[in-house]
Automatic annotation (TrEMBL):
<dbReference type="Pfam" id="PF20169">
    <property type="entry name" value="DUF6537"/>
</dbReference>
<dbReference type="InterPro" id="IPR046667">
    <property type="entry name" value="DUF6537"/>
</dbReference>
<protein>
    <recommendedName>
        <fullName>DUF6537 domain-containing protein</fullName>
    </recommendedName>
</protein>
<feature type="domain" description="DUF6537">
    <location>
        <begin position="1"/>
        <end position="62"/>
    </location>
</feature>
């Protein structure tokens, strides 16, 4: 599997179209939209605080993260 790592994220990625991977990509799009909206609506004095909060890592993935998905 490691030899085919170069395929990840490409059109030839055999796992790219599983329901789990599609859900992950949708979550990324949703999170990026949330970031844009937050930075647009947060007032200037709180912008740095909001940026720190939004920069916190999301470390769950696969079966571990699935229970936390909406």
């Amino acid at each position: 599997m490691a030899r085919f790592r170069f395929l990840r994220g490409s059109a030839l990625d055999p796992f790219a179209w599983t329901a789990e991977r599609r859900a992950e990509r949708q979550l990324i799009r949703d999170y990026e939209a949330l970031l844009r909206e937050a930075m647009r609506t947060v007032d200037v004095p709180r912008r740095a605080q909001a940026a720190q909060l939004l920069a916190l890592p999301q470390r769950n993935y696969g079966r571990v993260g699935k229970p936390s998905l909406p």
